[in-house]
Specification:
The complex is a heterodimer of chains A (450) and B (100).
Chain A (H helix, E strand, L loop, with lengths): L1 E5 L10 H9 L4 E5 L7 H6 L6 H18 L3 E4 L7 H18 L5 E5 L1 E2 L1 H9 L3 E3 L8 H6 L2 E4 L3 H9 L4 E4 L6 H9 L4 H11 L14 E5 L3 E6 L8 H7 L9 E4 L2 E4 L4 E4 L5 E4 L2 E4 L3 E21 L2 H5 L1 H20 L6 E8 L18 E9 L2 H17 L20 E9 L3 E5 L7 E5 L2
Parallel strand pairs in A: 1-2, 2-3, 3-8, 4-8
Antiparallel strand pairs in A: 1-9, 4-21, 5-7, 6-20, 7-16, 9-10, 10-14, 11-12, 12-15, 13-14, 16-18, 16-19, 16-20, 17-18
Chain B lengths: L3 H4 L2 E6 L4 E7 L3 H10 L2 H7 L8 E5 L4 E7 L17 H6 L5
Antiparallel strand pairs in B: 1-2, 2-4, 3-4
The chains are: A alpha+beta (450), B alpha+beta (100).
């Protein structure tokens, strides 16, 4: 049997300390936690930064280092620093050094780096080793080479290599959500389908149970399947909550693709062992002929300037849609006339907060609010251009009348200057897999002095 | 006509990676599941979401009383035209659909 303790869905989301203590008492074989995903958008990967505060990360990471030391088992983090770039692995290594110094402990630390050289990926693309997944955008070599960061998602094989170094702490760059949890059970010949399925169920911590925010979960893997055990006193896993987690952030609730194959849970059975624990058997691992890793890449999509105005005048609130349409046309003409910019070289999105800013054309219940926020987002090639386009918008949002006959109105600006420069914005441009002849081909493993 | 959200327990939506959206309808009972599985056509859902039926992957999961609907994101997550980074509000579009 292999016991994997999962403290929470991501480092930075906090965990229930009493539940973690219970987990340590149960003598886990490994503590696994995730550092992030693409879920918060392309900016984190594009600029290679963490979504979570360094202070939260450090406090929680230090707690987990102490837990691993007490339990005498390895601590493994995947997707360090939200996006799992090399820079974010180094960022967490720095935090680790601070923690270890404060704890007076000198364990062995291994890093697994996942970042890819865009030119190298471009070469592999040209030689037919990069394949589009369903729903992928069109791709060419230039798009790949324009990426500010590309990461490959490590699977169980690369995490196993890191565990084999006998490191007490493993800090990995981008990995699949499941790899850090499935790696050790697979090494110990537990049921392969069970290893991947249990890893998917546990990847968000106690999200597969009641009281999901408690975080801490133990998964026990064996030769036939796995058992899920949430560790907060008021958290319970039921067949329903466990099964439901296969749906989470997953387009297909029965199939999960991983490097080297896929998990099929169509025939899995879920049984309540008691009030808190669920037993799962019958999941299948189907190995593939070729070994592929998924790629994620982001590039700069321009720079943005925001403006925000609020409208309280009832007549303007009522006619807000027509008002922003008129503003949009007039502003576009002015940008062309004054700046000589062609319409395709920039974009301006005017959204009415309180009416339909979330859903746009899909909204069937536009609101009839007392006030409206007008959010103007300008995207252009560089910051100076975006700001200049924003300055051309400013007078309209401040004073534009519905008709030429009326007295000049004034609307509310919450800020001065009204233009807020957001800097570069990024876009995801890879939804592809890359074929590898050896799983370690695209990854770099080091044991470091921490 | 009653709405999906009034018949089921909960509708949630989320990204399934940057290029896909997924919407889970938790029916809560086999009766509600039968009603929605039969009464909510994929065509209606596709129209409400501004896409076509062939772009939609639909899973009616009787064991769970869940209907899952996945589709490629009409606007890729984080694109300047994207209004909803985590895909949170698509659930409301489905929850507010009327069922025969």
């Amino acid at each position: 049997m292999t016991r994997i303790l999962v403290p929470s869905g991501a480092l930075g989301l906090d965990y229930d300390k009493a539940a973690l203590e219970r987990g340590i008492q149960m003598k886990p074989d490994l503590i696994a936690i995730d550092g992030g995903s693409t879920d918060s958008g392309p900016s984190y990967l594009g600029s290679g930064v963490s979504k979570y505060a360094r202070s939260s990360t450090k406090v929680e990471w230090k707690g987990l280092i102490e837990a691993a030391r007490t339990a005498g088992c390895p601590l493994v983090i995947g997707t360090a620093g939200t996006c799992g770039t090399d820079g974010m692995v180094d960022w967490l290594v720095d935090i680790t050094r601070e923690c270890l110094e404060e704890l007076g402990w000198t364990p062995r630390v291994a890093t697994l780096k996942s970042e890819q050289d865009p030119r190298e990926v471009g070469k592999r693309f040209a030689s037919g080793q990069v394949w589009a997944l369903d729903g992928a955008p069109s791709l060419d070599r230039k798009t790949i080479e324009d990426c500010t960061h590309i990461v490959a998602l490590a699977g169980a094989e690369q995490i196993q290599k890191a565990i084999e170094t006998e490191a007490e702490i493993v800090i990995a760059g981008r990995t699949t959500d499941t790899a850090t949890i499935a790696a050790l059970p697979l090494m110990q010949d537990d049921h392969a389908g069970g290893a991947w399925h249990g890893a998917k169920i546990a990847e968000c911590g106690a999200l597969c149970a009641t009281n999901p925010q408690s975080g801490v979960l133990m998964v026990e893997f064996d030769k036939a399947g796995f058992t899920v055990h949430p560790l907060a006193y008021d958290a319970r896993a039921t067949p329903q909550t466990v099964l439901a987690h296969m749906l989470y952030e997953n387009a297909d609730p029965f199939i999960l693709h991983e490097p080297g194959g896929h998990l099929d849970v169509t025939d899995a059975s879920y049984e309540a062992l008691d009030e808190a624990r669920v037993r799962v058997e019958g999941s299948r691992w189907v190995a593939s002929d070729r070994y592929t890793v998924k790629l994620e890449g982001a590039r700069v999509a321009g720079c943005q300037t925001l403006l925000m105005a609020t409208i309280r005048d009832p007549r303007y609130v009522e006619s807000a849609q027509a008002w922003i349409r008129d503003i949009g046309h007039r502003h576009a003409k002015k940008v062309e006339n004054r700046m000589g910019l062609a319409p395709g070289a920039w974009r301006c999105d005017l959204r009415l907060v309180g009416i339909d800013s979330t859903l746009g054309e899909l909204e069937t219940r536009p609101g009839s609010p007392t006030e409206i926020g007008v959010l103007c987002t300008i995207t252009a090639e560089d910051q100076g251009t975006a700001n200049e386009i924003g300055k051309l918008m400013n007078p309209y949002l401040l004073h534009h009348p519905l008709t030429s006959e009326e007295e000049q109105p004034t609307f509310s600006f919450p800020f001065s200057p009204a233009e807020i420069d957001r800097g570069p914005v990024h876009e995801f441009c890879l939804h592809h897999v890359m074929t590898l002849s050896d799983p370690m081909d695209a990854f770099r493993l080091d044991v470091i002095n921490a | 006509m009653p709405e999906v959200g009034k018949i089921c327990d909960k509708v949630r939506s989320k990204n399934a990676g940057p290029f896909w959206l997924t919407i889970d309808i938790f029916c809560g009972s086999s009766d509600a599941f039968a009603r929605l599985s039969g009464g909510l056509s994929t065509k209606r859902v596709a129209e409400a979401l501004g896409t076509d039926t062939k772009s939609i992957k639909r899973f009616d999961i009787k064991d769970l009383n869940v209907i899952k609907i996945s589709l490629p994101r009409p606007v890729v997550q984080g694109h300047p035209g994207d209004r909803d980074m985590h895909g949170a509000a698509w659930a409301s579009v489905v929850a507010e659909l009327a069922v025969d």
